[in-house]
Amino acid sequence: MKHLPFFPCAGARALHAPTRRGFLYGLGASLGSVAFTSLLGEETNKNPLAPKDGHLPAKAKNVIFLMMEGGPSHIDTFDPKPMLAKMHLKEFVREDKQASAMQGGKRYYVQSPFKFIKAGQSGADMADNWTHLAKVADDICFFRGCTVDSVNHPTAMYQMNCGNRFGGDPGIGPWVNYGLGTLNQDLPGFIVLPEVSYPQGGAANWSNGYLPASFQGTPLRAKGSPILDLTPPVGVGTERQRRNLDLLAKINSTHAAQHPSHDELAARMDNYELAFRMQMQVPETLDLSKEDAKTKELYGIGNDATDSFGRKCLLARKLIEKGVRFVQLYNGSWDSHDYIERAHGNLVRGVDQPIAALITDLKQRGLLDSTLIVWCGEFGRTPDNGVRGGTAYGRDHNANAMTIWLAGGGCNAGHTLGATDELGMAAVEGKAHVRDFHVTLLRLLGLDDNKLTYYHAGRFKQLSQFGGTVIKGLIA
Question: Which residue, 331, 332, 339, 325, is CA-closest to 372?
Answer without folding.
Answer: 325
